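Subject: Predicted fold for C-type lectin domain family 4 member K, 329 residues

User T.R. writes:
Posting the sequence so we have a shared reference for the thread.
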Amino acid sequence: MEMKEREAPDAHFTVDKQNISLWPQEPPPKPDLSPFLRKPISLRVALICLSLVLVISIVLQAVFYPRLMDKILDVTSDAQILRGHVDNISTLGSVLEKDRGSVEKAEVQMWILNTSFSRMRSQILSLRISMKQASDQISVLTRNWEEVDSLSSKIPELQRDLDKSNTLNAKIQGLQISLENVNKLLQRQSDILEMMSRGWKYFRGNFYYFSHTPKTWYSAEQSCISRDAHLTSVTSESEQEFLYKSADGLPCWIGLTKAGIEGDWYWVDGTSFNKKQSERFWIPGEPNNTGNNEHCANIRVSSSRAWNDSSCDNKFPFICKRSYSQASP
Ligand SMILES: [Ca+2]
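User M.O. replies:
I've generated the structure tokens; pasting them so everyone works from the same file.
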């Protein structure tokens, strides 16, 4: 009996007080059958209940198994979908990893763009300030232009005034020139009067001093030099006439002498001597160089032909000559 139970183990259950146990393992030690046998009704009830539980369980499984299978299939499908999503996410992660460099580059470009934008904003601000200044300047120029336009309308009137002013200026300049000439004339008159008050005579731009003190030709010349003058030269008939008339018949030394004993005649005041044109002023027959000792000339007679050569040691009155430019008192 014991060997037969070990070779073919069957499902066993025991009801021990309130506990129900199932086992295919080693069967528990066999209780004392005496109480069991003493309670057959309870055992039967338990068996029935157990059977009922088994039946209900089988029925429930039969009822809910398809639904569970459907749920399981749905869950499996959802799991596959989720796996696909996970794969997609993994793929997206790798793509994102690849794009991270691009994103960083884009961030750098964004920073550069922001910097450029800041610069542009500051430039725009500067441009606004410049435009404001330009606008102010344009306003000022516009006002100035209006003033210029207003002045332009006055130009014809100003031009007429300017023409009148120019005419007046020309008249004033003419009057100034006339006044200067008058002043020069007055100054000339004053100078002449001053010289005449000192014994000089005026004739055509020159002053003449007629000394009545007889002197040798050389002493006479020294006397003229002391008066800032020289013995007179004669260059025209009118001057010759003025001189012999003013000499009043007295023989007077003039500034004509020879360069040496047999030299040419020359004027002591530096005037160029024209021998040919001067021939008309000699007394006919003169200069005769009497005694080979007549090297100085004088006005001897009251005539246009008045000159005579004479010894320089003779003493005669003399005539000094000073040009007006030398007429300072
Ligand atoms: Ca002579």
